[in-house]
Write a structure and sequence with these properties.
Two copies of one chain form a homodimer.
Chain A lengths: L2 H18 L8 E7 L7 E2 L1 H14 L3 E4 L3 E5 L2 E11 L5 E14 L2 E11 L3
Parallel strand pairs in A: 1-7
Antiparallel strand pairs in A: 1-2, 3-5, 4-5, 5-6, 6-7
Chain lengths: ~120, ~120
């Protein structure tokens, strides 16, 4: 399996964790991960990022669908970019935008190292 | 000069180009650069990105101050993250947030390859 497919799989696990809303701990987050999330200051460390995402979907969202559009493999790292959609409890799209994730290969497992996103809505 | 300092210099040139508001063409943009800019769909190609930034500061901003906080060197690439501030014509801060830029070394010159940012304001 190429790097692109492996990143796509890791990204799918992230998406499923958000949908399941109970498995945020299982996300492939690097301990030194930083998440310059939109609409607030950056979040650092896997624990804080898990809590951030937990609070995010606890309140507002039913699911998030990031799509792997491009993967640039760079040695032990890979940069993923693509669009995302976020859905509310009634199934309607409440946000859409773009993600940019730097993944890092740690002993064979691809983990989120830097993760950012922004909305395309005005 | 290390990769970090070179990225910092390239980033400063970008900042000065925005402040000068007349040198957007001189930005170190890769031809295949993509800019998943906030509040709209992603912009692709150096020409389109120059026009995007031109229209952006033509209308609303007097200057932008990105700050290189971290540089992760990855071979011919480097990932830069850090905060930014945007100032209005009266000098007040009208926005602040985070940037994440993937730079690519092309024959010794560091060029923006993927550039994204989001606001920290609600």
């Amino acid at each position: 399996m190429g790097v692109g497919e492996k990143i796509h799989e890791a990204s799918k696990r992230f998406q499923e964790a958000i949908r399941a809303a109970d498995a945020i701990q299982s996300l492939g987050l690097h301990e030194r991960c930083q998440d310059p999330a939109a609409w607030r200051d950056a979040v650092s460390g896997s624990g804080a990022i898990e809590r951030y995402w937990q609070s995010f979907f606890d309140q507002r969202i039913a699911g998030a669908q990031p799509k792997t559009e491009e993967v640039i493999p760079i040695g032990e790292y890979a940069l993923e970019t693509g669009p995302y959609s976020v859905f509310g409890q009634d199934g309607s799209e409440i946000d859409r935008g773009k993600i940019m994730v730097l993944w890092k290969n740690e002993g064979g497992a691809w983990k989120m190292h830097r993760d950012t996103w922004n909305s395309s809505l005005p």
